[in-house]
Amino acid sequence: MLAPWVLLSNKKYTSFAAETKKGFMAVTDKKDGYSFVYPFGWQEVIIEGQDKVYKDVIEPLENVSVNVFPTSKQDIRDLGSPQEVAQALIKKVLAPPSQKTKLVEATEHDDDGKAYYTFEFIAQAPNYTRHALSTICIGNGKFYTVTTGANERRWEKMKDKLHTVIDSFKIFNV
Predict the structure, then answer these.
(1) Predicted TM-score of the model (pTM)
(2) Which are the contacts of 105, defined by CB distance < 8 A and separation ≥ 6?
(3) Residue 58: beta bridge partners?
(4) Contact at 8 Å (CB) between 123 and 130?
(5) Dihedral over Cα of 140, 33, 171, 38: its sign
(6) How far is CA 151 from each of CA 22, 37, 82, 159, 169, rounded to the nearest angstrom?
(7) Does the pLDDT at position 13 exceed 70?
(8) Is 25 within 8 Å of 37 (Cβ atoms)?
(9) Is beta strand 114-124 parallel, antiparallel or unpaired with respect to 100-111?
(10) Which residues pair with 103 in a beta bridge?
(11) CA dist., res. 99 & res. 121, Å (int)
(12) Can you tell me the distance from the alpha carbon of 157 to that of 142, in angstroms, rounded to the nearest whole number?
């Protein structure tokens, strides 16, 4: 009889589990080299042009999306300061031109030798206001953008969960 640990030691593991905070589910994309967590109960939806999207089925403005684009840049700082890059992305990519936007805060942090920019913004449409958080990073020859948010009326209730999502986003070498 073989001890269970002998059998386990022979198994080849092809995935790894991200440490998951209670109430969150982990996602690891080994092809594109990133991981993050999202609130339990959100469901994956397929949206053309987005790498991954998870959303709340009841509150559609509560979601997280990841976009991955090829880039020749080596570092997010090559694009400008956190404020400059955040303003450009909000105006040109993250909110429709018809929406009034406001950058609340933009910061830089380093994780495992990679620079990340994280920013908070508000986008106002005629019938709702979305409060959102984004983190961007460059690595593996790719530009990564992860964005999450909620309707402004639910921001106070959701902001801690949404910060957990954004703070969990990490890239790794592939």
Answers:
(1) 0.86
(2) 119, 120
(3) none
(4) yes
(5) positive
(6) 23, 20, 24, 11, 22
(7) no
(8) yes
(9) antiparallel
(10) 121
(11) 12
(12) 33
E strands, the chain, where? Answer: 24-29, 34-39, 43-44, 52-55, 63-70, 100-111, 114-124, 129-139, 142-151, 170-171
End-to-end CA distance of the chain: 39
- For residue 91, the one-letter residue type is K
pLDDT for residue 14 is more than 50: no
Residue 57 DSSP class: S
Q: Which of 136, 104, 102, 141 is closest to 117 using CA atoms?
A: 136
Helix (H, G, I), strand (E, B) or coil at 151: strand
Helix (H, G, I), strand (E, B) or coil at 164: helix
Q: What is the DSSP string of 87-127?
A: HHHIIIIIS-TTSEEEEEEEEEEEETTEEEEEEEEEEE-SS
> Which positions ≥6 away from 117 have C-beta within 8 Å?
76, 82, 85, 86, 106, 107, 108, 135, 136, 137
Q: Which two tokens stand for residue 36?
A: 């993050």
**Residues 63-80, mean pLDDT to the nearest whole number:** 96
pLDDT of residue 20: 64
Tens digit of pLDDT for each residue in 113-171? 999 999 999 999 999 999 999 999 999 999 999 999 999 999 999 999 999 999 999 99
